[in-house]
Amino acid sequence: MAVLPSKTGSTQIELGIAEDSGERRPADRALEALAALTRNASFGGDQFSARCVEFLAATYRVAYALVATFPDESRTSLETRAFCADGEVVAPLRYELSGTPCADVLIHDRVFIPSDACSAYPKNDWMAQLAIQGYYGAALTAPSGERLGVLVVADRQPIVKDDWIHPVLGLYADRIALELGRQRVDGELQLAASVFRHSPQGIMITGPDHRIRKVNDAFRSITGWQEKEVVGRLDRMLSAGRDDPGLPDDIQAELDSDGIWVGELWSRRRDGEVYPEQRTIVAVYDPDRRLLHYVSMFSDISAEKFATERIHRLAHYDATTELPNRVLLQDRLLHAINHATRGSGRLALLFLDLDGFKLINDTFGHSAGDEVLRKVGVRLLSRLRKADVVARIGGDEFAIVLSDIGQASDVQAICDQLLEVITEPYELGGQENRVTTSIGIALFPDDGSDVQSLLKHADAAMYQAKESGKNRYAFYEPEMNRKAEERLQLTRQLRDAMEQEQFSLCYQPQYDLASGRLVGVEALTRWRDSSGAMVPPTRFITVAEDSGLIVNLGEWVLREACQHAQHWREQGLDFGRLSVNVSGRQFQDEGLQAVVAAALESSGLPADRLELEITESWVMEGPYRAEKQMRLLNDMGVNLVIDDFGVAHSSMAYLKRFPVQKLKINGSFIRDIPADADDAAIVSAIIAMGHSLGLRVVAEGVETTEQSAFLRGTGCDEVQGFLFGHPVPGDELNVLLLYGPNLASS
Ligand code: C2E
Ligand code: MG
Ligand code: MG
Question: I need a labelling partner for 233 at 20 to 30 A (CA). Which of 14, 256, 490, 645 fits?
């Protein structure tokens, strides 16, 4: 662009130094002016350049004088910092270097073209437009040798070379360069100071002697120390642990070799709190490699550290009990296995499952349940060594790794203690509650040599402990593994069985012992699996309970049995009452009433013709909850029977409160009477107790006339067993209902 730049207003240049009579040579005046400018501290930076060009233009009566510097790092153009044209100040303007005499000035340091300068640079529009004849340019060079720009004096007339040109303009150029250099350093210093002040990172500068020299605002806010409190003191005052001066050896060594160290450190705040920081330390040297100081930049990373730790905790620990979770257990178990392998040692993996915990949760709420889990964790830990691992691996499941155990009897002793400590009462809602646990044990290397097989085998053993009556432990045996596989397969088959209608019902008659009248039928479920084999309920009911399938199955049984019973009624067949078994799992379900109501309603069977059997052991696992459910069902008009009575040692206190109508003595007590005196005594006692509570008593599994006669003698009310009738499909029962037999014949 070849236009003369616009002028900044019409401000006439006001010279800082008065013109004089002209008697003295311009060179002298120029030098005096330069000296005066230099003395006057108020003319800093660009003002200094402006004054110089104004003065040179005026003194030497030239049309143009300017100072231009590189505006950017490309160094392909120049920008005027001060420009005086025909006595007026011109606004800054930028021009390309190439093809200008300024380019030559930067190369040759000085360029003097006394006349016809525009012809010498024909490609440069500027030269022509400003009609420049005489040109003198001096490079502005920093003390470091770096070129900063140019000082130019030019005129529309030729410039006569006299003795002023080189020395005077040379001096001006040097002085201007010095000023520009200083201005640049000032700018950089200001920038550095601003960064120092506003940095969110704490910055501390220490001497080679590790004494603190300077700190910034962030240092104060992070450490709590004021600058005046720390300056002059050794930097170790901030360290979390060290007392020796200087940096830890490894850091110092890295600084000495690389000049920089980056890492994490623990530091201490003014109030004593220890915190983690991310720190960068730089060693600053002078050109002769003398250490000047260390600059430390640091940020407080406690928040990040906390978050990382939290994530780690969440991933590896159970939030309720703060015990390791399944992930960490596997890790620790692997570690223990490796350790035991190296030392040819032995270890035990214990799997614990609380008995009846769901009931606690349902009865007292989840926070009470959590409280029990926490207490269980604490109690388990209290009986173990520090090296043992206790983990919570599921709802009410815990696992323990016992390392360095001698023989199996050592594990037995520990398990005895664990059972004992878990059984101690837990106070919930002002009441004392008891929880027990079943423990499965797998030994390394005896029962498995890797994490997965030990976990699997301890689980199978735990299942066995549950099966054999809970509140006990069981050592793994290979047989259990087979059983576990079988259970898994059964569960799969059971799922399909419902859809494929593989279930059916059988009914077994119950008689009044005194009159011989048929007083009821018990519905018993039968399963013919896809291969056509009959699977006994003793095998599939527990699997259905464990997998939760019992809820659906139980609902089907209720509907089906009620329909059948109503069908008999409609045919005028009198079966007395219909008994249906209800599993503990169903009994705990809040939906049970609705299911019962629906079965009654859809079939039309009156509620008082239905009797629900719930086993004594289930009732006793959660007597409060059971009582509540019983009342609700009773209120509907449904009768209740405690099945398999005698095995779970019910307390009289509970029995008195339960709204039940009948006790059914477990068949195992009937089997050996009257020969077995103990059983005979138990049966008599149950009957007497039942009667004293106003309950009817039924005996199940009656197979012989001797048993029947004994029961009659003790006053037992009702009987059920092969002696009187096997469980038969509904159709077969029709016949029985029509024609007898009845007890009178036996
Ligand atoms: P339970 O309720 O105590 O039923 C009595 C069991 O004794 C039945 O076995 C019956 O066939 C058998 N039994 C009857 N009389 C005699 C006898 O004189 N001698 C012998 N040794 N046994 C006799 P089953 O049908 O195999 O049922 C076993 C258990 O499975 C039942 O015991 C009950 O607890 C459960 N069960 C059966 N069906 C259902 C059901 O639909 N729901 C639930 N929750 N459980 C059921
Ligand atoms: Mg029963
Ligand atoms: Mg029974």
Answer: 256
